[in-house]
Amino acid sequence: MTTIADIAKLLGTDSKGAGRRLAALGYLVTCSRCGGSGHFSQCQQYGTMCFGCRGKGKTLPRLTKKIAAEAKARQDAGELAGYFAANRARAAAKGQLEAAMADLDATFRATVVETALLAEKDTRWGNYVWCGSPVQRASALLFSLREAGFQWTMQVQFHGADPVAALAGIRECADMMRAVDAAAAPLVDGWIAAMHADAAEHNARTPEEQWKAEQVRRNCGR
Ligand SMILES: [Zn+2]
Prior knowledge:
The protein is built from eight helices and four strands. By secondary structure, it is mostly helical.
């Protein structure tokens, strides 16, 4: 009898690695328990996930000495070069995720829109956001792009998402941030001027009028 541990030893890896190499070499077969659907009988804890294949629909075949020898020969012949390269690419991408997120955050902070928003935070009153302003909408977009980047890292960390795709996704978010900021930047000076005029108008009000105006504006807050 040949076990996955035997094949792992032969290929110079652990059991998990051996399973993956056999999969990469095309040895997986359709799961006989679920017929490839990944679903089987209902159970309270796991729903309908098939235990034969853990919901993947494919499993390793019955392992034999022939498969073991053949896999070793194919590995020695370099047939796993693509698999190894993909592994290296994933590891490299994983190592760059943190820096990409730091870059995304730095890009966010460096935008003309966010810089202005921060600099003018005391000009605004009544939790006021100017919902109608394109600059404010650009700010909301920038914020959601940073959030999207963060979600990519969570997907990798907790859900086994492909780090290569995540890295590309985070970089794409940074590119989109720059595009959004470039579109909104020409409007920022006008936005600041309008905000100052608005604040001056507010400051000229009596305390009672100010309180009323603030109640109205709070309904539109961020
Ligand atoms: Zn199955």
